[in-house]
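#help-structures

NK: newbie question. if I give both the sequence and a SMILES, will the prediction place the ligand too? trying with S-adenosylmethionine
OV: yes, paste both and it writes out the complex. here, I ran yours:
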Amino acid sequence: MIAAQKQAEAPSKLVPHRTLTAFYPAAAQRARFVADLFDRAARDYDWMSSAMSFGTDRQYRRRALRQAGVTPGMRVLDVATGTGLVAQAALALGIAPRHLIGLDPSLGMLEENQKLHGIQLAQGLGESLPFQDAAFDFVVMGYALRHVEDLSQLFTEFHRVLRARGRVLILEITRPSSRAGFALMRFYMQGLLPLLTRLATRHDDSVRLVEYYWATIAECVPPAAILTALCGSGFKSVERRTRARILSEYLGAKS
Ligand SMILES: C[S@@+](CC[C@H](N)C(=O)[O-])C[C@H]1O[C@@H](n2cnc3c(N)ncnc32)[C@H](O)[C@@H]1O
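OV: that's the protein plus ligand as structure tokens.
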């Protein structure tokens, strides 16, 4: 009876985008494709992040974390830590390395992270976090919700590992809602950036990552679906803040 009740209450699955067969043959191959892609492009990732944001990416992450309430003494989990750009922002705000854990499925990204930041690292998926309940004061995920299997499961895991009144921040790029904005962003992300990446890195894998990045942004479920999934996973005070119309900050708190 209790099991049946729990099942009925479980939030329904929310896939962040349709299967992108131009990149992988079927949904079952998506996670492997994504992990391989990041493994191979890891050495160029920080350059690409900077190029995508015209050099504002590090400062932006720091500001977003500060405004979301990250303060020294908090235990922080950086899901999808990658090369550690969000972790670096948390360190700059006074989070002690012993209070900061970065998690990512890509060994290539984790290796780059290890070279630079000296924080605790774990290999794993956001949808099945290898941590105890209520272990963190703050959970952050930067630019990775497009890569998970199920957003409802992801947010349920975030909620589980947060203590009461703990907070979540999810940074994401959102496709512009206006036609002109979409066309402009597509021109940069699909036309110009792959070209610049090829010239600067000379790595096919890094060009492929930029192409995939745009495809997932263009196909991602809308912000309203993400906010609904956060509420469905138990978060309160859920909101989306935006900057330059395309930078989304999703926030929520555990009651
Ligand atoms: C665009 S990078 C973002 C890295 C970093 N958060 C930042 O702000 O620069 C996306 C990261 O998500 C990771 N990732 C992919 N699938 C994931 C999953 N299911 N759970 C957690 N991380 C995942 C990738 O390996 C990659 O390191």
